[in-house]
Amino acid sequence: MALIEGVGDEVTVLFAVLTCLLVLALAWVSTHTSEGADPPPQPQPARTAAPARPSEPMADLDSIRGEAPAAETPSLRHRGQAAQPEPGGAGVTAAPAAAADPPQEPLVLRLKFLNDSEQVARAWPHDTIGSLKRTQFPGREQQVRLIYQGQLLGDDAQTLGSLHLPPNCVLHCHVSARAGPPRPPCPPGSEPGPSGLEIGSLLLPLLLLLLLSGGPAAPALAASARRPNVVLLLTDDQDDVLGGMTPLKKTKALIGEMGMTFSSAYVPSALCCPSRASVLTGKYPHNHRVVNNTLEGNCSSTSWQKTQEPSTFPAILRSMCGYQTFFAGKYLNEYGALDAGGLEHVPLGWSYWYALEKNSKYYNYTLSINGKARKHGENYSVDYLTDVLANVSLDFLDYKSNFEPFFMMISTPAPHSPWTAAPQYQKTFQNVFAPRSKNFNIHGTNKHWLIRQAKTPMTNSSIQYLDNAFRKRWQTLLSVDDLVEKLIKRLEFTGELNNTYLFFTSDNGYHTGQFSLPIDKRQLYEFDIKVPLLVRGPGIKPNQTSKVLVANIDLGPTILDIAGYNVNKTQMDGMSLLPILRGGSNLTWRSDILVEYQGEGRTVPDPTCPSLSPGVSQCFPDCICEDAYNNTYACVRTVSALWNLQYCEFDDQEVFVEVYNLTADPDQITNIAKSIDPELLGKMNYRLMMLQSCSGPTCRTPGVFDPWYRSDPRLMFSSHGSIRTRRFSKHPL
């Protein structure tokens, strides 16, 4: 019997080898017979109106695809529409001009390649696009694609004069690495490999062969073929409560209406850097220890780089799950600081890095392109940051490998100040004003002293200022809406949309006049801690709204779960949303989350308001300050079938407490701390202390209002000491 089994194994191996040889032979024949054909061009979706500068030097783009840099500078294959050959000779063909026409001036054009090199070309207005290609790239004209202001110049018979090109204008030039006639865009999985064979044509037969043979690699290959892609779109300071999603009509239609909208999505800290650190790590601020927007507050500090960046979810996706990872936009507020590695620092886990130096801007900024600095100016057509991010994201989708799933994180400057809208949107929303909600321009009675110090009513100049800011914020979001539309159209065009999850959210909310505070974030109220969260993807039914309580610490666990990684292997505090997204029933879910913030104040009087004592910051000309050292607080936000509460404690001499019943008082006008049942107050105080010392699984324990809640005093303390020491530490590092 053993002999028979041995013979059977040998026959199986021989059969597999012969089958592989047959597949290789068929692929070779298919490749060489198809190269003689000239397939028709396929349509390509239009790019964003304002083009970015070329996406990356050649070596960096090749490294994304796992290939060595090409020998020739501009030789990178583009998966878009190839230029069609123009009938006629190889010389420059000039169209006959009318006798009455004045003499034409020659055009001076700058052909800019992906590695930032340039080539000057001279032509006449009556020259065609095809003749320009033949003149500048003799013998390779069929491999050349020219792009002007984001639009592919695909008609070789079109004259240059019809484009109305300004003097010394830039044409972005993509030259494919493959010789031969133009080819249509490659479907996913069909990029040519180094051997010259169409590897994509081999992938399916070989995969089927391995699956049938039951070899040890078969399950891994099958899982890899099914793993979804993920795109995370993160805006800056976009609120949910005051209508922040209103201008994003296309985003709501393309993501929200095609998937799920979360109506109770929160951030654990209402400030950019701590909140973004929570997105990346899946942890509350007391665990990732980023407490404000400064290096001293651990924002992109060397300590953060050493202790937290190696365990972010993108790093796990890259190292453990084999994902291509792409970042574009604002990272952390102090990224690029010289004291923390400068722009040369590229965080672990990113295979493509296109990060903004420090805080949000729209013009006159510097980007780190895989650790190399690139300055941008104030020319809308090449420098407007939201459009630059859109275009480099589309470039990534063109040049990425088709053999690995991908993760993209696109972090826009909008709608953060200075609220610079694209030129075409600067006159929109002229009749829009900041919402006059019930808590607009009223005194914050029975609230923390920082809220009570705001002057009520606000001056007319303050109201005019915040109305203008509100309007400009919406204007900047229109370019984000365009970005989302372009991205989804490109994913649909490449056939990857149905296998891609898209998340849209913000790092924190915002206020404009609530409780007479002019404009900012940082406060504990709904307008500052509640954010939009829209998700679409495989297995998510359209037009759904979920009321479950979620936080941005859940994004990392969710994306790792999508990638097939066991979240329990991490130290993340959040929970995977995937069961909710897929419509799971009888799920056990949390009923509360932690919100914590460490206030900032100046050691000297604020120059805007010299009459004020030291210890305050973010002050306006009316001497209304938005922050202070003792604006340090921690809250439990509870949302369940029976309760909708918020309990907060301040670290000040009063140990001030604010409590709100948001079912009866959604605008949080009345602080009920002194009138609420003392037993209920004690339960919430206990839960707050427990959450402030939690880590990993203990952050996901049932809340005090859950029926399965059990009291465990040991959870109130950590290995670092008592909760009181840990909660309001002034020196997180």
Q: How would you explain this protein's 3D organization?
A:
With 733 residues, the protein is an alpha/beta fold. The protein has two domains: 58-95 and 103-175, Phosphatidylinositol 3-kinase Catalytic Subunit, Chain A, domain 1 (Ubiquitin-like (UB roll)); 226-727, Alkaline Phosphatase, subunit A (3-Layer(aba) Sandwich). It is built from 19 helices and 25 strands. A hairpin with a 6-residue loop joins strand 24 (644-650) and strand 25 (657-661). Helix 6 (249-256) packs across helix 14. The longest helix is centred in the middle third of the chain and has 34 residues, at 460-493. The chain is globular, with a radius of gyration of 29 Å. The N and C termini lie far apart (68 Å). The relative contact order is 0.11. Mean pLDDT is 82; it is low at 1-13, 30-100, 177-224 and 717-733.
The gist of it:
The chain is an alpha/beta fold and about 725 residues long.
Itemize the secondary structure elements and their pairings.
Elements lengths: L1 H33 L23 H8 L41 E6 L5 E6 L5 H8 L7 E5 L2 E2 L16 E7 L23 H15 L4 H9 L2 E7 L13 H8 L3 E3 L2 E2 L5 H10 L3 H4 L13 H6 L5 H9 L2 E7 L21 E5 L9 E4 L2 E4 L4 H4 L1 H15 L6 E6 L37 H4 L7 H34 L6 E7 L4 E2 L6 E2 L5 H4 L3 E4 L7 E3 L3 E2 L3 H8 L15 H4 L10 E6 L18 E4 L5 E4 L4 E7 L4 E7 L6 E5 L16 H15 L30 H5 L6
Parallel strand pairs: 1-5, 6-13, 6-14, 7-18, 8-19, 9-10, 9-13
Antiparallel strand pairs: 1-2, 3-4, 3-5, 7-17, 10-11, 11-12, 14-17, 15-16, 20-23, 21-22, 23-24, 24-25
Helix pairs in contact: 1-4, 4-5, 6-14, 10-16, 12-14
